[in-house]
Amino acid sequence: MATYNSSTTTTPPPIPGSGGARIVGGQDDTSGPGPEVMSASTLEGDSVVNRQGETLGDISEIMIDVRSGTVAYAVLSCGGFLGIGDKLFAIPFSALTLDAERKCFVLDINKERLEAAPGFNKDHWPAFANMAYATDLHTYYNVRPYWQRPENLQ
C-alpha cells in the first residue's frame, strides 16, 4: 500500500479507480478547500459544458449513495426559465470532469445525445436505487457503475 507524506506533498495522490469526477487545473491552489475536497453546495449551480464548449446546463443537486458514502450523480438542469420547465438529467459523477480553472464541469457528450438521454422533471424523480435504471444510466454515459468499482465491492 502506498503511503502519503504530508511534508513533501501538498495534496494526497488520487485513489486508483476511485470513480469520482476527474479534475483539471487548480492543483497548485492550496489556499482553501477545493478542488480536491469541496462542499456539495459549492458545486451546485456550476455550469456544465461539453468538449465543444457548448453550455449544457447547471448542476442543481448532488446525489449521494448514503450506504457507500459515494457521490453517485450530479443532477444537470437544462432549459426552462428560473427553474420552471427545466428538464433534469442524472449524470453519473464519474462521467464529469471538474475544470477548476474555468469553474465548471465538462461532460463528454454532444447536445443531441444529451437531449435524447433519460431525463425527468422536478415533480417526477426516478428511483435512483433501482438497479436496472441505474445500470442503464451508467451504460448510456459509458461509465462503469460506481457500485461495481473495486473499492465499493465487499
From TrEMBL:
Residues 36-113 form the PRC-barrel domain. Residues 1-10 have a biased composition (Low complexity). Residues 1-40 are annotated as: Disordered. It comes from the Bacteria. InterPro entries: PRC-brl_dom, PRC_barrel-like_sf. This is PRC-barrel domain-containing protein. It comes from Usitatibacter palustris.
